[in-house]
Amino acid sequence: MGPRIGEASKFRIYLGAMDGGQSVILKVAKTFKDGDILAGEASEFNILSSFAEQIAKLEANQGGGNSHYDWLFAKLLSSFMEPTQGDRRINVFMAPDTDIGELFPLTKLHAEVEIDTRTSIWIFGRFLKFYSFFELLAASGDNPIARYPIFSPDDYLIGPEKHRLIYYNFSGDIADVVADDFVRAISKFILDWVVVGDSSSEQEYLELLEDFSEFGRNSFEQAHRDLYTLVKRCWGIQYYPFTYRKHDTGIWKKIEED
What we know:
The chain is of the alpha+beta class. It has helices at 35-61, 106-112, 117-139, 179-191, 200-215, 220-234; strands spanning 4-7, 11-17, 23-29, 75-82, 88-94, 104-105, 113-116, 148-149, 156-159, 164-167, 173-174, 194-195, 242-246, 253-255. 33% of the residues are buried.
């Protein structure tokens, strides 16, 4: 078990490595009783993983591309009670298609740097896609009302180089809450982070972001569609490096794929 990187009321979070060297995140319950929280979380992540696999198989059978919903959340490798730790439960996660060493806590970057318009777009788009996944999950079952996870920036890791936004901590969900509330909350989080330029395209994006933050949308699928209608018209769909600057400086820097 490596260094501790976080702590919640019921568990601690550590970096670790598998026997083969693969980097992992370990969540260790503080007490035997606290393990119930991690058992519930394990169940939630297994549901997400199973449904992402179903979508991938369906897309493959239809001859389409892979939407890679599995890249939006951490993969649960195992969940077990450890006898040497007083039967405290441990959840072990890996980062999909990337290395945990390339990831940062979302709240850390949000606090330390500002981002430019197009960087904010891909982060915002990842949020909208992730939440729309729960709408698909609901539509596949008997209850069409989505149970969205509580929006907490602490629940995410971000990989600037590969454009990864990874949900890795289940803080709970809320029943009977419409998408509007969460669309507004996420939009305000992005508005508080982004520095928008003076170009007409960027100002149009700002207007859309402000509209989201005030009125929300009836679904995340609708919000995602509205966002990328604008993106396709203004910039097209293409890779754009993570572009940031320290607060109160004018020097923009980039993190991009090699």
